[in-house]
Queue: 4 jobs
Job 1
Amino acid sequence: MAASSCIFCQIARSSTSTILLHQDHKVIAFQDINPSAFRHYLVIPIEHIPTVNDLHKRSEDYTLVSHMLNVGQTLLQRDAPQAKEYRFGFHQPPFNSIDHLHLHCLALPFIPRWRELKYSSLGPLGGFVEAGVLLERIKPSF
């Protein structure tokens, strides 16, 4: 999908009515349109990066994902401090719904409970990758 027709690029350019929870020079955050948990936010880079497969072991990718995670953690701690568990991660192709990198930030419980399956790792098949695991994967060698 070209960046010009990408719904997340449109949101990042403020071309939609989506209410932003956070905005800075690198990322924006907003509520998921189809929430799977008590609180479910998405943090996306303003730059069009299709999927986790487009991230590499380089400092700029590591810094971006770290920033995305920090923004998501800050928002959920602010908006759902009573949550007993949080989950942060990315769907990997072919399980991603939109080809624009996006971090799922979930304050659990899942609603309904069966949605937990959608946010589980499928081992070598991919599925959902926790943000910390992805950060280890793309951590540059110093």
Job 2
Amino acid sequence: MPSVAVKLYSVFFKFLLKHRLQNRIQTPLDDTNPFGVTSRPEESVAAANPSFTDGVTTKDIHIDSLTSLSIRIFLPESALIPPDSDSKPQSKSRVRASTRQPDVDSGSDLDQHHLRRNSHGTPLTVNSVPHKEESRRNSYGCSNDAESLKFEIGRWGLQRFHGGGFVSGSNDSVANDFFCRRIAKLCDVIVVAVGYRLAPENRYPAAFEDGLKVLHWLGKQANLAECSKSMGNTRGGGTDHKKSDVQRHIVDAFGASMVEPWLAAHGDPSRCVLLGVSCGSNIADYVARKAVEEGTRLDPVKVVAQVLMYPFFIGSVPTHSEIKLANSYFYDKAMCILAWKLFLPEEEFSLDHPAANPLVPGRGPPLKLMPPTLTVVAEHDWMRDRAIAYSEELRKVNVDAPVLEYKDAVHEFATLDMLLKTPQAQACAEDIAIWVKKYISLRGHEFSY
């Protein structure tokens, strides 16, 4: 069961959340203003930091002059070191360090990992060494054909959508900043955190459209960078930049160029992963579906995988977990329905709306075309069963769609401010890093649970 501290904080959290949601329902708002807001006054915000604090530097960009849509880019310091394809042992050690796997000979580390989640089926193997215990997690639909972690290092983009029930949260909050820094370092990647417009000022489909707009913006950046590179090669003979030159370029061009220098120098849009938290998972899944529908029109951007962390799915026919855990920690079902009423236009409100229920008939495209999807669920979360059901439907059409269920965990156990520094939150981030690496590896080495 969750600790006493978590239970007490949950009571306080739900009291405040209910009060804020009811105030927003009762307060008349001008929801016709397209500019919108991306953060609330009560949100604790972390300022962007252009220096490498804790190994990651950040900056904010307002990418749409007509709306409040913005992004925060997280660039790990390791990105400044160009990958050396001839130095395989060094690359291998760098990846192992970034994923922070536990020492299998260390009893204390094993004890922590034993407690973090339940298990069914075969144990996870890392570097061909099986963990000693078999009760680490619930792992649905996962194979165990693991190879050693031998990846060519290459930058890829992770587009991240924060949670908050569509009505709160922000891409520059303290909690979001901490989590994105963790992912950037663990995966050695550029993270693009999306500041989408919040409801009720901007209802559906504003947040969904913002997510897709960022994907298109990344595509434009890639094309602009390619043009800039071609012009540079023509003028300068195609000479390679040294590390000092790259660093000087980042400092000199900070926010002063049409081509975003961090993405131009280190991004790889052909290996883009979407990661959503709670309602952000709904946005990520929508963006993934639109990416499938648009196909080559998004080139050079390619969505190679998505990660859905405790997705904010619901439906008119309640699942077993929705009945049993309706009054669960932090986000109970009644309050989440209030959030859906604030997000969906009044004339469109339905718990079986395509934005809310991933398995309603006629929701395109065909599931067999969806990208590989990792789903993270918590034992004490009323939303877990519908997320698992969606994953099962994906596996039926041969989509790689494992589910990791963490025992004694609550909704947002890996991203909520007070839980971010727990061993379970760290373990979840490590697990995500392991899974996505097989889809961002230049050589495509397979590594599965």
Job 3
Amino acid sequence: MLDSLVTSKTRVKLLLKFFAHANSGYLRSLAKEFDESTNSVRVELNRLTDAGLLLAEDEGKTKVYRANNSHPFFSEIKGMVTKFLGLDELMEKIVKRMGNVEKAIIVGDYAHGVDSGTIDLILVGRDLDLVYLDFIVNKTFEKINRKIRVRVLEESPENLAGILVYGK
């Protein structure tokens, strides 16, 4: 869906990264996270920055990128991304009722900008309400017609490649 509108897979990944949640990132970490060359990520970061969709700020010797929430199309792009992911309602409900959710991370195809029909989500937290999780996953499937696979972990794994949609 989103990948048919935006032809660059790297650009789709960047839009998902920055507009799904208030994420920020720098060139090398993004290249590593997306398993892409730094050059391809740099080209797309420059295009999105030139278009005004991303802001680039120097933090020491590192340039950090984040979504420009004052851009006229910020709300529309954020809305498209969250609908593409189908997680806007799910995340709101999970965070409110699940208990101590520390992080929610999209992994798999959706993290790479591919609409495969299955959303893989990792929730990090302790003492989460798993009965409610099953209920809300089934309800979400009915609404967005996408299967959601959720893995619950008590601690955040090292070097997890994905898109952070909740937490820090």
Job 4
Amino acid sequence: MTNHPTVSPAASRALEALAAAPAAALRETLLEICSSPRWAEAVAAARPWPDRASLLAANAAAMASLGTADLADAMAGHARIGTPKAGDAVSEREQAGIRGADAALLDELHEANAAYEAKFGHVFLICATGRTAATMLAALRERHPHDAATEAEIVRGELRKINDIRINRLLDEA
């Protein structure tokens, strides 16, 4: 999902426009993808990106370089799983898998989120695109026993996946 073998002319133009954007406008756009200022700075510093793969590689490199505080900044831009931000089309689209879930399942998800947050001090973060409420709950329960260091690396990977999806959408919807 992170790489598109054929690149449309519109996506190429979007990539060129993004690479040529003034620093402030680029920063604003990148912060909509990921709320970590350090991530946005690292991705911007990698421009120009000759192709989609280069921009996605910049995302991966930037994610790999984030420290604990930077990961916290990145997570701050995400809604709690099972509770998309009202009126936020991105949050609602990414968590579409909870639509139609029964109340008991949503209650279990809420309780598991609370236990996770109490243990790790932050929201449970997962690339929710394409996942149902039940699969997100299963993943949450599977990850809860992890130690903080293991979980931080999983979160880093999930954030990278989310950013890849958002970057691809930005280029494809241009």
